[in-house]
Design a protein that fits this description.
DNA binding; Transposase_17_sf; alpha+beta; Alpha-Beta Plaits
Length: 183
């Protein structure tokens, strides 16, 4: 399978999961370490719009700031560094992630908005958790006034303002809950 190359100044949904659906984050410390590695390896090569780390998978929505080979190598280094540390910590060997990280190029702003909401609602989708309080998602960081490397202003600009950002997320959440009540 030929993977689509990453292209500078384009936006991508990057995601992967544990091999065979296995857990890749057993603790909060694992998730914190993964985010620190992401900051280290992606610095100046890619900038995040949104992210979410679940126990057995993750989502990044990022814009590529460097040439495709550079960002691809940075992502590979991130995943390899994390896998080595995780394997050592839990006394396991072998691949942690599925073979290649998935990537979908995003060229449509409407789809980008829906994808941001989808990424942030992952805790609700998978574990019926309150997505607004989930610590390993960019939802709250976008609303915060604390310093962040996320593209906060751009994300809020896609929704108009903070109030509409929250409103759209809640609307999608309400639709999700209605879907589950019907099943």
């Amino acid at each position: 399978m030929k993977l689509e190359p990453l292209v500078k100044e384009h936006t991508y949904h990057i995601f992967n999961r544990g091999i065979n659906g296995e857990t890749i984050f057993k603790t909060d410390e694992n998730k914190q370490y993964f985010l620190r590695l992401a900051d280290k390896y992606l610095s100046n090569k890619g900038t995040l719009y949104a992210y979410c780390l679940m126990d057995n998978h993750f989502h990044f929505l990022l814009i590529v700031n460097s040439d495709g080979d550079t960002i691809t190598q940075a992502l590979s280094n991130l995943f390899n560094a994390y896998a080595k540390a995780f394997n050592k910590a839990v006394n396991r060997t072998g691949s942690l992630f599925e073979k290649h990280f998935k990537r979908i190029r995003i060229d449509d702003e409407s789809y980008l908005r829906r994808l941001i909401v989808y990424i942030h609602l992952n805790p609700k989708h998978h574990f019926d958790l309150d997505f607004t309080a989930f610590k390993y998602s960019s939802y709250s960081a976008i609303l915060s006034d604390k310093e962040t490397k996320l593209m906060r202003d751009e994300v809020l600009g896609f929704f108009g303002d903070k109030e509409n950002y929250k409103f759209v997320h809640q609307q999608k959440n309400d639709l999700l809950e209605e879907k589950f009540m019907l099943e």
